[in-house]
Specification:
The chain is α+β, with helices and mostly antiparallel strands. The protein contains 14 helices and 20 strands. The protein is globular, with a radius of gyration of 21 Å. InterPro entries: ALO_C (IPR007173), FAD-bd_PCMH (IPR016166), FAD-bd_PCMH-like_sf (IPR036318), FAD-bd_PCMH_sub1 (IPR016167), FAD-bd_PCMH_sub2 (IPR016169), FAD-linked_Oxase-like_C (IPR016164), FAD_lactone_oxidase-like (IPR010031), Oxid_FAD_bind_N (IPR006094).
Length: 428
């Protein structure tokens, strides 16, 4: 029996079978066979969800062979859903195109990233799923559907963030933009100044974010703006030094030391904050957005009304100061635009994002649980792919179109072919 684990190694399952279909027809046939034998089906991409969203003891489907571009027409691109974001960005660039926004990790599958409302940062930009114009989906009985926003906008706006509960997405049509470069400015600034000027900070760049190590008074700030200036990317040596040796090799070793000797953790995090280098460069957008992540961690992230961020963040800082165990990884703060996708964490409101992390093997349950309680005071919506403890009863109150979404689920998967323990908890 095969054991499958996610990237963070905090979730695993032993499926009856692992299938790698070559096209939509094979996906449909797999679902028909599984439904006939009453076996659940789940899809796994790169395994970058920290939850058990893709875990099953039934049939686990990998869409790794469905990674081709089907069609490019103007500002619309149709691709198979298993394509990885890094490959999609490379192929789009070859045609003078780009995604309008990306997160800081680009190894996820497109289907997994959109299904969980994965996002980058930018007050005027929504999550990745907001670019979806059409969806091809295999439902719980193996029937293939194609939903287009022009013909059935409600269905597309529901299925765009589906968390794997409505069917297997096999093909997506996306709205893309002309390729662009970003002027990246990375600075170290007083944390109190950034937080007190939060509203201005979110408007200070096309893409603005910051992070800080718990207990430190410095913010490591990133501001990225579109530019027509000539490119001046980092040298290969500088990229390897900053992104691999410092952010991954050295930081990973330091975290391992902090796990072994927790009393050293404050000195370790202080040393890394103090040694962070400022950068100023211009490069292709996807190269600026994403960085290699070799140090494993667990993460929880909540979206709350954007104006609530300073108050909520102060409460998180107070919590961290009271913990009896150290936190080795930083707290990250971002923002995003409101959207109209039924199960999107950004539905109907501009969002501020607060993400907390911990190194594997270090205590995190009390830390994360208490942060979650804080976020609940602001009707916080958890990132679908990151750790949280919410249930359907709570989430129904936080999503105005929840019942409409569940009605579509009943129509597309009435026998719950795609259920698992995670969906039972969050969808009911």
């Amino acid at each position: 029996m095969t054991t499958v684990r996610n990237w963070a190694r905090n979730q695993q399952c032993e499926p009856d079978a692992v299938e790698r279909p070559n096209d939509t027809a094979e996906v449909a046939a797999l679902v028909v066979a599984a439904a006939a034998s009453n076996r659940p089906v789940k899809v796994i991409g790169a395994g970058h969800s920290f939850t058990a969203a893709a875990m099953t003891d039934g049939v686990l489907v990998s869409l790794g062979r469905l990674g081709d571009v089907v069609d490019i027409s103007g500002d619309r691109v149709t691709v198979q859903a298993g394509i990885e974001l890094r490959d999609l960005s490379r192929l789009l660039d070859e045609h003078g195109l780009a995604m309008p926004n990306l997160g800081d990790i680009n190894v996820q599958s497109l289907a997994g990233a959109t299904a969980t409302a994965t996002h980058g940062t930018g007050r005027g930009l929504g999550n990745l799923a907001t670019t979806i114009e059409a969806i091809e989906l295999v439902d719980g009985r193996g029937e293939v559907h194609r939903f287009d926003v022009a013909a059935d906008p409600d269905a597309v706006r529901t299925l765009a963030v589906g968390v794997g509960g409505f069917g297997i997405v096999t093909e997506l049509t996306l709205r893309v933009v002309p390729a662009f470069d970003l002027h990246a400015k990375e600075t170290v600034e007083p944390l109190a100044d950034v937080v007190s000027g939060w509203d201005a900070f979110t408007r200070s760049a096309d893409h603005a974010e910051f992070f800080f190590f718990p207990g430190d008074d410095r913010a490591l700030v990133k501001r990225n703006d579109r530019t027509d200036e000539p490119a001046r990317p980092p040298s290969r040596l500088a990229y390897v030094r900053d992104k691999y040796l410092f952010e991954n090799v050295a930081f990973g070793l330091a975290c391992a030391v902090g796990r072994r000797w927790p009393s050293l953790a404050p000195r370790i995090t202080n040393a890394f904050a103090a040694s962070a280098s400022e950068r100023d460069l211009i490069d292709r957008s996807d190269r600026v957005f994403a960085s290699p992540r070799k140090v494993r961690f667990v993460e929880m992230e909540y979206g709350i009304p954007i104006d609530a961020v300073p108050e909520a963040l102060a409460r998180v800082q107070a919590l961290v100061a009271s913990l009896h165990h150290p936190v080795l990884l930083p707290i990250e703060v971002r923002c995003s635009a409101a959207d109209d996708l039924a199960l999107s964490t950004g539905y109907g409101r501009e969002s501020g994002w607060i993400a907390v992390h911990q190194y594997p093997g270090m205590p995190y349950e009390h830390y994360f649980d208490t942060v979650e309680q804080i976020m609940s005071d602001y009707d916080g919506r958890p990132h679908w792919g990151k750790l949280h403890g919410q249930t359907a009863d709570v989430l129904r109150e936080r999503y105005p179109r929840w019942d409409d979404a569940m009605a579509l689920r009943d129509r597309l998967d009435p026998d719950r072919t795609f259920r698992n323990a995670y969906l039972d908890r969050v969808f009911g």
